Amino acid sequence: MEARVTHIWRHPIKGVGAEALLSSEFVAGNTMPYDRVWAVAHEASKAPAGSSDWVHCNNFIRGAKSPGLMAVKAKMTGPEGHIQLSHPDAGSITVNPGDIGDATRMVAWVTPLCDPKRALPSHVVRAGTRGMTDSKIRSVSILNNASLAALSKVAGRDLAQERFRGNIWLDGLERWQEFDLLDKKLRIGGATFVVRERITRCTATGVDPETGEPDTDTLRLLQENWGHRDFGVYAEVVGDGIASVNDVAVLA
Description:
By secondary structure, this protein is mostly beta strands. Helix content is 12%, strand content 34%.
């Protein structure tokens, strides 16, 4: 097997914005640096202010519950920790989520993008020794462009990568071949990963990331055409290194 990296994405704030990168460092035993290092807890969250422990994604605002969030773009800029957020309806804001005042401003900025019938944004949580990924393991998500093309074909439209909020996208695999990599070691650029589990998807993948409007029943399409609701795989970093766009991915 030989594949190639086409895209790398980072999500500094869980569920709020995506940022394209040319490369990223990966460290054994850790999640992707600055990926989901912050999250916005809602009013019903069990993640108290000041907590850094990993908790389930249900404790945070996210696209599955508030589709408008899917149209947020993010970019880490300026001093370390500063993030520029932009949305077609909300304009832009630059914040340091670790600053109490900025965190309050960010909560106010995202609130109109959230479903008012659900628990509203309350406070910002910073991850401790790992990012607030959806999985309990310290994961990096690896996705397959051929699988995206297959799903886009049955959807009758080109589906953007941002719907799936993945980290590393690969070309050169057959569709769904990523599922054959479970428990296998994969070297991508200078970093080494072990693929651990398939990613079962939520309704956020049915939202257009340009508009924040639901437009495709991706879960139904996956189930009807392939008998599952999975897309992509979670992997653990087991060898330090840098992975970059155009790097080769091979079995290690």
